[in-house]
Amino acid sequence: MSWQKIRLMLAACAVGVFALATQPALAQAESPQALIERIGNEALERIKADPAVRAGDTEKLSALVDELVMPHVNFERMTALAAGRWWRQATPEQRKQLMEEFRAMLLRTYAGALNAVDDQTIRMKPLRAAADATDVIVRSEIVQRGSEPIQLDYRMQKIGDSWKIYDVNVLGMWLIETYRTQFAQEASRSGVDGLIRSLAEMNRQGGTGTGS
Description:
Elements: H1 3-17, H2 32-49, H3 51-54, H4 58-68, H5 75-83, H6 85-89, H7 92-113, E1 121-124, E2 135-143, E3 150-159, E4 162-170, E5 173-174, H8 175-205
Helix pairs in contact: 1-7, 4-7, 5-7, 5-8, 7-8
């Protein structure tokens, strides 16, 4: 799969990812499903009500993504899964750089996809997990009048009292699996440092991946 297709997938899921907005204290006892549904709907309303965001203000879009989404992503686990064996071979400094570049890539992509927000709503599916589960898949759909629903599932892990996202499934494709293939291709050519350089260059240019 090309990085252009990955960008389209991320654009489709950007609305749903905003479900991981800032959590008030009372939400700590909620299930991950209830949390995503409630906070996601609140976040959608905030996006729709902000003229600057809807007009495509890049700086404000990035700030909004950074505030609402990024604190609720387990970037260490997400990057480790995407990098695979190359993560295990990386030094602590290389791991830090990989996480920073991966985070910047996701931030840029989600911010760029915010203009897709229109009249979408979130429709949750039943949560199939034990009451004491700490690693779950939350299933949902993004619904828009006149369009087919977009499948959007989250892999989430409970860390303390907080739920963190570490993978997203859009239309049957888990993003980590896709990233892993692309990262492995680049790292096989030029090692971990080469992968870091490629991600850094992509971020400077405003792209979404290491190559076509």
